[in-house]
Amino acid sequence: MAPKPQASKTLLTFADVHKRFVQPDGSVNTAIDGVSLDIAEREFVALIGPSGCGKTTILRLANGLIVPDAGSIRIDGRPPEPGPDMGFVFQAFRLIPWANAQANIEFALESLDLSRAERAERARHYLDLVGLSRSAKAYPAQLSGGMKQRVALARALAGEPRVLLMDEPFASLDAQTRELMQGELLSIWRRLTPTVVFVTHSVDEALVLADTIVVMGAGTVLETIRVDLPRPRLTVEMRADPRFLEQRSYLWNRIRDLVLTDPASEFFGRNLNE
Ligand SMILES: Nc1ncnc2c1ncn2[C@@H]1O[C@H](COP(=O)(O)OP(=O)(O)OP(=O)(O)O)[C@@H](O)[C@H]1O
């Protein structure tokens, strides 16, 4: 695999970060065990790895929801704090059920120094950006899964964050909607240029979206892979491109081996070729 080239200015840094959790039975679980990462401004990074390897914990550390036990995390040289500079998009949409799409976004902007009219205008703008201006008055229960996820994306973007943290945001969507959302996200990323850290279990998703794929295992970074495939990548031709197929098969095998050799995995020790 090609080494990661010198990127532009580093925005988000993890330096030898450790994070442990005490479980209800008193045992200690090391979720993050010495992670160092440098993420450049405007870079699109995908985190991939077996279940429980620490991907979500990395996102929660990155936006300051939790703090490391050791090591340091810096965004532009300062410790992270939850706030509008950080957009967070979850797999579960987490919309307020009794508020319509417009109001869901406006609520998220309340901590900003904006007038009511400016909040409303901003919410309209971002709903429009994700193609939902006609659904501004719809309540979450009246929206499809893809539409709800777009409201959640608009809500995260409306704070105009420098860093967009996304935790398997498209995992619950059907294949077509997922691909449309991937295209939507890439076009927004090109226009607004946030730094994106995107957790996924899908090798294909990581390859079509990311500049860099970070492979994690058991709370550590195992490998950082530069994706040098040309963009746009959401094309039929790309899926047949030998370079795409080579990286796909490399990553697929890497992650399958991690799952089969992880004693904590349900699939530990299985021979999938039988
Ligand atoms: N609040 C918590 N309390 C106790 N243990 C936790 C907590 N949060 C995470 N963990 C543990 O830390 C480890 C890493 O969890 P994390 O959610 O970061 O993994 P993940 O790679 O995102 O998993 P998945 O792919 O299944 O979402 C797991 O063993 C998990 O049980």
TrEMBL record:
Keywords in alphabetical order: ATP-binding, Nucleotide-binding, Transport
Gene3D superfamilies: P-loop containing nucleotide triphosphate hydrolases (3.40.50.300)
Source species, domain of life: Bacteria
InterPro entries, A to Z: AAA+_ATPase, ABC_transporter-like_ATP-bd, ABC_transporter-like_CS, ABC_transporter_ATP-bind, P-loop_NTPase
Classification via SUPFAM superfamilies: P-loop containing nucleoside triphosphate hydrolases
Classification via Pfam families: ABC_tran
Domain ABC transporter: 12-243
GO molecular function, one term: ATP binding
Assigned protein family: Belongs to the ABC transporter superfamily.
Name of the featured protein: ABC transporter ATP-binding protein
Source organism of the structure: Pelagibacterium flavum
